[in-house]
Amino acid sequence: METAGKVGLIGAAGAAGQSIAAALSTAGRPYRVIGRGQSALQRAFGNDPNAEIVTWDPADPASVKSAFAGLHTAVYLVGVPYDQFATHPPLMQKTLDGLIAAGVQRLILIGTVYPYGRAQTMPVTETHPRNPHTFKGKMRLAQENLVLDAHGHHGLETLVLRLPDFYGPGIERSFLHGVFEGAARGTRAQMIGPIDVPHEFVFMPDVGPVVETLTRTPQAYGRVLHLAGAGTVTQREIAEKAYALAGRAPKLIVAGKPTLRVMGLFNPVMRELVEMHYLVTDPVVLDDTALRALIGPVRKTSYEEGIAHSVEAARRSAARAA
């Protein structure tokens, strides 16, 4: 392993960005957070002396180049609304152009399981065919291909790190978030069913230390790697554990695919969930043997501990709201 230069987190204000920033800060490494909105970055990172806050406009090449100037490694975390996935490839291309113009040496894309499509083997290794049958999978595949094709050109090395669905304390974009809120407040939790199928979730605070290590691991680049969760669990088991921690019986409303279709008539995000519903009925479970062979043991928080942290965060949030 090497001593890596400055890391920039592009699209840093989300859950993954905050996890990686925490790991960089714990390691005493200065880093840059890059996003469109100064206020969101200031709220998330303003109290960390290791953080440098920079805003960018992806539509302005000069702004992109300036935001990346002086970085050794960039980590790409940019999310887009679920009904705007067509913007993923062009945003990635603008980013790559800016990285090359600024002389950045490495890029890590934090990816998803979407490019695989339906799992043909279980668990899924990095050699599994990428054959997405959904529009979102095709857009993520195009994004990945841009990153992988850029490796070895213009002095840039690239890596794609794929994650499964995630959860954790205060992470609103996790589809388990409503379960923790329901448990903490004693209200009903709306879930997407079926909820008795074994599924895999990664505890988001576990992601940061892995990415921090990968920024210092030269042999990781020019490939795809997986970070898997702590085994499989069903959504019902998570709900039962969460409500039990709060001393309550589970109150669940389970929406299946037909319900999502109806809700989608009025809600564009729900409409977009329909095509990805296969991930609930036939989850993609990742194999991360290659990652562990490369960097050694990976800390994985148990579901019991992760659920406890998530419920406690929801309790604190509910208390503040009250």
UniProtKB/TrEMBL annotation:
Any one Gene Ontology cellular component term annotated for this protein: cytoplasm
Domain of life: Bacteria
Classification via InterPro entries: Epimerase_deHydtase, NAD(P)-bd_dom_sf, NAD(P)-dependent_oxidoreduct
Name of the featured protein: NAD-dependent epimerase/dehydratase domain-containing protein
Stretches assigned to the NAD-dependent epimerase/dehydratase domain: 9-215
A Pfam family reported for this protein in Swiss-Prot or TrEMBL: Epimerase
GO molecular-function terms, A-Z: aldehyde dehydrogenase (NAD+) activity
